[in-house]
Amino acid sequence: MSSPSQQQQTEFVVEEFYKKREKIQPRKVKGLFAKLRILGVALLLGLYYFLPWINLNGSQAVLLDLPARKFHFFGITFWPQDFFYLAVLLIIAALALFFFTTLAGRLWCGYACPQTVWTEVFMWIEHYVEGDRPQRLKLDKAPMTARKFRIRGTKHAIWVTFSLWTGFTFVGFFTPIRELGFSLADFSLGPWEWFWILFYSFATYGNAGWMREQVCTYMCPYARFQSAMFDKDTLIISYDTERGEPRGKRKRKLDYKSAGLGSCVDCTMCVQVCPTGIDIRDGLQYQCIGCAACIDVCDDVMERMGYEKGLIRYTTENTLEGKQTHILRPRMILYALVLTGMIIGLGVSIATRIPLELNIIRDRNALYREASNGLVENIYTLKVINMDEQSHHYSLDISGIQGLEVIGLKDEEIQSGEVKEMIISIRVDPIELKSTSTELLFHIEAVDNPDIQQDQKARFLGPLVN
User: Fold this and answer.
1) Would you place residue 222 in the very low, low, confident or very high pLDDT band (cuts 50, 70, 90)?
2) Comparing C-alpha atoms, which of 214, 199, 126 is closest to residue 163?
3) Which pLDDT does position 110 carry in this prediction?
4) Tell me, which fold does domain 356-461 have in CATH?
5) Dihedral, CA atoms, 314, 315, 320, 324, nearest 10 degrees?
6) What is the pLDDT of residue 18?
7) pLDDT (tens digit, 9 = 90+) per residue, 185-212?
8) How far from 59 is each of 184, 325, 391, CA to CA, in Å?
9) What sign results for the dihedral spanned by CA atoms 404, 407, 410, 416?
10) Which candidate, 466, 379, 358, places its Cα nearest to that of 424?
11) How far is the C-alpha of 41 from the C-alpha of 43, rounded, in Å?
């Protein structure tokens, strides 16, 4: 008879919530999509590294001057009061992400994401210093020798230098980069400037040099929810299972169809070039960043074997299932129309933007007052903000009620970025009031530039005189 301990056995299940990183050494790849990635990297990094050095009218063309609360973009100065434009720009960016994801999956991740862009550069440096994938794998397995130490040291030295230049450029968008360079040369940078240069450099070095695909797989939320934007007409990178299976190695001259084989030669090149280390032949996976390296290398293999290209390609689920694909579908058209409308609207709004703001606050402590001479009085606080780069002399005109009298109103010179506050009193003969609430029109205009003007409406309250 067995004992209770033998009869009752407890089964333990160990589940890993985080998999230890296995170093991925992608193989260098050539092809159409590789050229597009190079073009994207060159364009985006070119903008990043050279924009701060462009001057316009004697000042930095793109400068986010936080202490002065000025944001300069090619001759246009924005202020905190223009936060609306940033909100619209973020909405446009979100809609563009939805549009391109619905159209062709993770185009953003594969070609324009900062993590992808900087990782590409770091991998180019690694390839240049350590060689292609076979050489790097061999170097990884080799013991630490003087040669290995020299190669690895050279790679990391270039990585660190590039990261420091990236951090310096980042701060150059917030502090004039030429001044920043002189301050750096004589070690007179402020503590916050040192902090952000080193922090951004460390983030670049860590993310692009060490973490790489871990950022895309575990840290980026887009990898988790991007599938919600897919449908069966979305262009995605897919392996044609019907054509490729059963896979198997073979000689080039073999009639693989007679041998019962598919087009896939099982060379694993698609896995070797993948920066996230997945096998696209296992189907669509959230780790896939849509870089299309597997398409380039598979097309190259198919061409060498004399097979038709496109075993791995951009296609849709409907196409793979033998159904009709609809690229121009209502969802895409709606995204495109809304996106185009918002871009045009933002452009027109910025082009017609007037660098002047007038805020009117009526005194709420009393609906109205009766002055000693029998007139009805309302008190207003005016806040005038000059958002132009130049100071201006402003005049204010108030209309809407016949014979109104303004006390405390005077022309004001307001400096660039200054907020001028003034308190005025408006008195009206009650006979002129047709109702208990009458609309007033406040017109403010720069004396030296009539194009800079604003109109604001306010209400005048008083008794109803029969």
Assistant:
1) confident
2) 199
3) 92
4) Immunoglobulin-like (2.60.40)
5) -160
6) 57
7) 998 999 999 999 999 999 999 999 999 9
8) 20, 52, 18
9) negative
10) 379
11) 6
3 state DSSP class of 77? strand
d(CA 237, CA 297): 13
Q: Which amino acid is at 109?
A: C
412-416 mean pLDDT: 87
Cβ neighbors of 107 (< 8 A, separation 6 or more) are: 100, 101, 290
pLDDT score, position 11: 54
pLDDT value at position 12? Answer: 53
Q: Which one, of 329, 325, 299, 331, lies nearest residue 313 by Cα?
A: 299
Helix %, strand %, coil % of the chain (to 5): 45, 20, 35
Q: What are the backbone dihedrals phi and psi of residue 391, each rounded to the nearest 5 degrees, phi first?
A: -75, 150
Q: Which helix (H) or strand (E) is 385 found in, with range? A: strand 376-386
Which amino acid appears at position 402 of this protein? Q
Contacting residues for 50 by C-beta, under 8 A, at least 6 apart = none
Domain boundaries, the chain: 22-353, 356-461
Q: Which of 26-35, 83-92, 151-160, 222-231 has the lowest mean pLDDT?
A: 222-231
What pTM does this model have? Answer: 0.84
Q: Is the pLDDT of residue 328 over 90?
A: no
Calpha distance 384→419 (Å, rounded): 6
Rounded distance between C-alpha atoms, residue 269 and residue 29, angstroms: 10
Quickly count helices (H) and strands (E) in the chain: 16, 16
Q: Is residue 377 within 8 Å of residue 369, measured between CB atoms?
A: yes
DSSP track, 254-316: S-TTTTT--S-----HHHHT-TT---GGG---TT-----HHHHHHHHHHHHHTPPS-SEEEE-
7: pLDDT strictly greater than 50: no
Residues with Cβ within 8 Å of residue 165, at least 6 apart in sequence: 49
